[in-house]
Amino acid sequence: MSKFWNEKTRNIEPYVAGEQPKPGTRVIKLNTNENPYAPSPLIKEQLERFDPEVLRLYPDPQSEIVRKEFATCFGVSKENVFCGNGSDEVLALSFEAFFEQGKDAAPILVPDISYSFYPVYAKLYDVPIKKIPLMADFSVDVDAFLQPAGGVAIANPNAPTSLALPLSEIERIVKAHPDHVVLVDEAYVAFGCESARALLPQYPNLLIVGTLSKSHSLAGIRLGYAVGAPELIDGLCRIRDSFNSYPVDAVAQRIGALAVSDVDWCQKNCSAIMTTRERSIATLRARGFEVLESKTNFLFAKPTTIAAETLYTKLREKGILVRYFNKPRINAFLRITIGTDEEMDKLFEAIDSIMGGMK
User: Fold this and answer.
1) pTM above 0.70, yes or no
2) Which domains does the chain have, with CATH numbers?
């Protein structure tokens, strides 16, 4: 701790990302929900003919080419789309733009088990929050989200639990808060969940945040988006332009636009991941694991004959990374990213070796 830190820096508890091995390290990486497949081939072609001369200029602050592609893909106007430096930045800007700050402000509602960046943003921006406990089966208690509040931030599908709410339940939450923003984080929506975008024409308080990291294999370029009413997009722009008016770099804009335009590629790869996911659920259940139903590119799985932390450690020793959260209610589970079929088979072989060696 430095004597030069201010009070906020001293007291904040930063988000802890999943382990990122050093370049060249040979591991099977199933811990940070990256897509196991290469990005659209259109991107490789773009990079091969990319003219570095464009890098001497600042990028388009409005990210027009990406917003237009998102607008076409989502069936909205580009005035309904905002782009940022990864969905994490878009979420952060949203917390600052739409949720009131200070101890006297009405708290926003968040699930008690969800993306762990939400309470970090709340603390960073002095936004009061009220954590709503998940049900015993880890589903979202929708009725509890209907109470008066200063807004809502909810992931659908939820992470790390992998469960999704039907669109009708999301609509109940949005409808219950007409005077406050309901932020729906759809980072994993492409893996079998119905997007809330269909609700946008009816609800100007709905803001949907997403990312190209998972569905489009672009975790490395950091490109996220928000879709909502123009007044919400304008609010995000006001906060962005008070902090960093050039957030999305020129290379990311070109790559992102191509990725969004290649709808067939995205659907093909997401379908492949979903097929592997269902096989993996069955395979783990056959080995005695409790596995929640998943609408994401990962599994939330509880080993029943070995402690989750022990299995996590032994898999790591074998060069296979999964995610373990040493937190109440979920410390008996592992979050396992869906890899290729070959990677998942190696995971199952490692699990069999570890569990067999303990008999």
Assistant:
1) yes
2) 7-38+264-356 (3.90.1150.10), 41-262 (3.40.640.10)
